Amino acid sequence: MIFRILWVVAAITFVPLPGATQTGFDPLLLNIRMSPGALHPPADMIKQQWTLDGYRLGRLGPQAPRAAIIEDDARRRLLILSAAADGTVLVYRLEDLPMDVAQQLPRTLTCSRARQCQHNRSDPAGELGCLALCLLEHLRE
User: 0.85 cut: is pTM over it?
Assistant: First the structure.
């Protein structure tokens, strides 16, 4: 009897839920780390780079983060959102991902407007943290 119970528990644990990603990659399980300085990785590390067209950062205070690093638990950097000198946001992809990041950038902008990321300056994560959360949510789709 106990073996049947254990077998059922094991089966429930290892059977993927409907709607779960089959690749085992869930962007919402990634970590976002904020950096006080803008980050521009070396060219040999960058797999792809984009500018968030149509988005300008508000005036950043002295304590506001200038970059959001999206990484896994092993601290392997996957994506970086960084503030450019002119107020635009640069997105760098540093590792291969199982989805097309460029396809999700317009949805990220829509999410940032809905969440009013530009007015999110009192939060320690600031605008870039808000943008990073929007990007991760839409990478899951």
Answer: no
